[in-house]
Amino acid sequence: MVEIKTDASLDAMRVAGRVVADALAAARAAAAPGVRLCELDEVARTVLREAGATSPFLGYRPSFASTPFPAVICASVNDAIVHGIPDGYRLSDGDLVSIDCGAVVEGWAGDAAVSFCVGTARPEDVRLMDVTRRALEAGIAAAVPGARIGDISHAIGSVGRAAGYGIPEDFGGHGIGRRMHEDPPVPNDGRPGRGLVLRQGMALAIEPMLLAGGRNAYYVAEDGWTLRTSDGSRAAHFEHTVAITEDGPRVLTMP
């Protein structure tokens, strides 16, 4: 069931969204050659703790996972698409890193992700990140009352496919509110004019993931969580929590 939020509920989600933005900014600022991914997780934990927030990631165990998730961020590097576990891997110059983070404050959740390069970025990675960011912006622009879920999906997919990138078919955005994952699912590709009608008060986590190799194929790594591209190509991931309002999309996870 899709929950329609009141203005007060969306304001509460904005509080959680600010915490997410702060945690992402802090993790990104700490990322440098030689820094371990687990250290970035500790940085994000500190931000959440000082804000009085809890993590919807820590201990999360969906049906596909063999173990609960052990961290407050997902840290996915290079060919890792999403759900990377922040372990002892040390960042290197030129790594492409995607950080996904959530926060819950007084019962309301926020969820967002950002991709960036450590040190000197390769031109092809800059393009991949730029297109993924533009795909997110296109999806957000389509999130208006009276439109449909398929309009968001089509907007994202059109940007990604026009650039020649792959789109993992089984993973995309979702509703969000009192829980991190709620109805409806928000695919990253689809046909316009199809799916659930968007209504004022809905909140969605919109999150394009694009694969540089142009293929949609991926596999789950041995840790049971990390999704990696099958051809070893790099991936980028951007996400915002967005409210549907009569005045247009309201991004709840902006800094």
Automatic annotation (TrEMBL):
<dbReference type="GO" id="GO:0070006">
    <property type="term" value="F:metalloaminopeptidase activity"/>
</dbReference>
<dbReference type="InterPro" id="IPR001714">
    <property type="entry name" value="Pept_M24_MAP"/>
</dbReference>
<feature type="binding site">
    <location>
        <position position="239"/>
    </location>
    <ligand>
        <name>a divalent metal cation 2</name>
    </ligand>
</feature>
<dbReference type="GO" id="GO:0006508">
    <property type="term" value="P:proteolysis"/>
</dbReference>
<dbReference type="GO" id="GO:0046872">
    <property type="term" value="F:metal ion binding"/>
</dbReference>
<dbReference type="GO" id="GO:0004239">
    <property type="term" value="F:initiator methionyl aminopeptidase activity"/>
</dbReference>
<keyword id="KW-0031">Aminopeptidase</keyword>
<dbReference type="InterPro" id="IPR036005">
    <property type="entry name" value="Creatinase/aminopeptidase-like"/>
</dbReference>
<dbReference type="Pfam" id="PF00557">
    <property type="entry name" value="Peptidase_M24"/>
</dbReference>
<dbReference type="InterPro" id="IPR002467">
    <property type="entry name" value="Pept_M24A_MAP1"/>
</dbReference>
<feature type="binding site">
    <location>
        <position position="100"/>
    </location>
    <ligand>
        <name>a divalent metal cation 1</name>
    </ligand>
</feature>
<feature type="binding site">
    <location>
        <position position="239"/>
    </location>
    <ligand>
        <name>a divalent metal cation 1</name>
    </ligand>
</feature>
<feature type="binding site">
    <location>
        <position position="111"/>
    </location>
    <ligand>
        <name>a divalent metal cation 2</name>
    </ligand>
</feature>
<comment type="function">
    <text>Removes the N-terminal methionine from nascent proteins. The N-terminal methionine is often cleaved when the second residue in the primary sequence is small and uncharged (Met-Ala-, Cys, Gly, Pro, Ser, Thr, or Val). Requires deformylation of the N(alpha)-formylated initiator methionine before it can be hydrolyzed.</text>
</comment>
<dbReference type="InterPro" id="IPR000994">
    <property type="entry name" value="Pept_M24"/>
</dbReference>
<keyword id="KW-0479">Metal-binding</keyword>
<feature type="binding site">
    <location>
        <position position="111"/>
    </location>
    <ligand>
        <name>a divalent metal cation 1</name>
    </ligand>
</feature>
<dbReference type="GO" id="GO:0005829">
    <property type="term" value="C:cytosol"/>
</dbReference>
<comment type="subunit">
    <text>Monomer.</text>
</comment>
<comment type="similarity">
    <text>Belongs to the peptidase M24A family. Methionine aminopeptidase type 1 subfamily.</text>
</comment>
<feature type="domain" description="Peptidase M24">
    <location>
        <begin position="12"/>
        <end position="246"/>
    </location>
</feature>
<keyword id="KW-0378">Hydrolase</keyword>
<feature type="binding site">
    <location>
        <position position="83"/>
    </location>
    <ligand>
        <name>substrate</name>
    </ligand>
</feature>
<feature type="binding site">
    <location>
        <position position="181"/>
    </location>
    <ligand>
        <name>substrate</name>
    </ligand>
</feature>
<feature type="binding site">
    <location>
        <position position="174"/>
    </location>
    <ligand>
        <name>a divalent metal cation 2</name>
    </ligand>
</feature>
<keyword id="KW-0645">Protease</keyword>
<protein>
    <recommendedName>
        <fullName>Methionine aminopeptidase</fullName>
        <ecNumber>3.4.11.18</ecNumber>
    </recommendedName>
</protein>
<feature type="binding site">
    <location>
        <position position="207"/>
    </location>
    <ligand>
        <name>a divalent metal cation 2</name>
    </ligand>
</feature>
